[in-house]
């Protein structure tokens, strides 16, 4: 029973986090305010280290965080059919262009899920920090949608 209660608590926390993320996505004030600001662009994971060293370290240690190497191993690092999902911000302002031009945007980094963070890194207050990022709805399925992976 104790085990269940403990795990249930963690489960509830995760669910409420996800709900809050969705609310901030659809709330009018967020959408309106975002319009007044310049479009955020991608900045890369190095920039997150300064304020979130723990998250960066934990994530970098996860073997799947180095997923660009599986393209390099197959000589596919320039293949436009492969790079969109194995890099960060492909084709978007500040995002991955090519191995030569934007080596720091290889791999699925923080901003692949949290969105472009240029406004976030410059935010003056904690509230602004929280307001400037929200995980887009269905972000996972933008890459995780193919059952038959084209790489096979
Ligand atoms: C100058 C410091 C700073 C930098 C650089 C920074 N952050 Fe943050 N971040 C904060 C602060 C302050 C908060 C709000 C306090 C908190 O929730 O821990 C925050 C909160 C967050 C949150 C939670 C947002 C929410 O809805 O509560 C995420 C996700 C996040 N940061 C991601 C990133 C990513 C990704 C990067 C790199 C691209 C980054 N941060 C760079 C300071 C920073
Ligand atoms: C639509 C997004 C998308 C595209 C496009 C894409 N990948 Fe992937 N790839 C993923 C995701 C998501 C995973 C991890 C989950 C999975 O295996 O389906 C992955 C995993 C892989 C893996 C590891 C599979 C394993 O056995 O762990 C390889 C290898 C790979 N991709 C190669 C490629 C190659 C080569 C291309 C280009 C021909 C490519 N991918 C294009 C999204 C994509
Ligand atoms: C595969 C997608 C994904 C990647 C990559 C990712 N995150 Fe997250 N992150 C999430 C999700 C999902 C949540 C929980 C939902 C929420 O709180 O909005 C979260 C929550 C957070 C939070 C708030 C909760 C906490 O732990 O304090 C911070 C801060 C954060 N991430 C920072 C980062 C940083 C920094 C990186 C890169 C090193 C990163 N994330 C990479 C998906 C991701
Ligand atoms: C930009 C594309 C992209 C986005 C967005 C993305 N992923 Fe991934 N993800 C990948 C790729 C590519 C891999 C393959 C890593 C490897 O095989 O080395 C992967 C691997 C994974 C893995 C480990 C392999 C597996 O199949 O179990 C998990 C778990 C995962 N992603 C969860 C998530 C979740 C949850 C989200 C949303 C919050 C998300 N991803 C968003 C591209 C993405």
Please give a structural write-up.
The chain has 152 residues and is an all-alpha fold. The protein has 8 helices and no strands. Helices cover 43% and strands 0% of the residues. The chain starts with a helix and ends in a 21-residue tail after the last helix. The chain binds heme C (4 copies). The site of one heme C has 16 residues, from helix 5.
Mind sketching the topology for me?
Elements: H1 2-26, H2 28-36, H3 46-49, H4 53-61, H5 69-72, H6 110-114, H7 118-121, H8 126-131
The protein binds heme C (HEC) (4 copies).
Mean pLDDT: 81
Number of extended strands = 0
Q: State the distance separating the first and last CA atoms.
A: 44 Å
Q: Briefly, what CATH class of the largest domain? A: Mainly Alpha
Largest sheet: none
DSSP helix count?
Answer: 8
Structural class determined from secondary elements: mainly alpha
Note the overall shape: globular
CATH architecture of the largest domain: Orthogonal Bundle
Poorly predicted sequence stretches spanning 5 or more consecutive residues: 1-5, 8-31
Estimated radius of gyration:
17 Å
Which band does the percent of strand residues land in?
Answer: under 5%
The small-molecule ligands in this entry are: heme C
């Amino acid at each position: 029973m104790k085990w269940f209660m403990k795990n249930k608590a963690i489960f509830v926390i995760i669910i409420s986090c996800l709900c809050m993320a969705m609310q901030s996505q659809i709330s009018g004030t967020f959408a309106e305010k975002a319009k007044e600001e310049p479009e955020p662009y991608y900045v890369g994971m190095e920039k997150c280290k300064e304020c979130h060293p723990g998250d960066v370290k934990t994530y970098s240690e996860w073997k799947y965080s180095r997923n660009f190497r599986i393209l390099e191993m197959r000589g596919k690092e320039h293949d436009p059919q492969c790079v969109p999902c194995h890099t960060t911000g492909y084709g978007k302002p500040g995002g991955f262009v090519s191995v030569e031009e934007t080596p720091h945007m290889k791999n699925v980094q923080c901003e692949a899920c949290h969105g472009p963070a240029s406004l976030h890194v410059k935010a003056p207050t904690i509230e602004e920090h929280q307001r400037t990022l929200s995980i887009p709805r269905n972000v996972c399925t933008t890459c995780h949608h193919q059952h038959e992976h084209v790489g096979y």
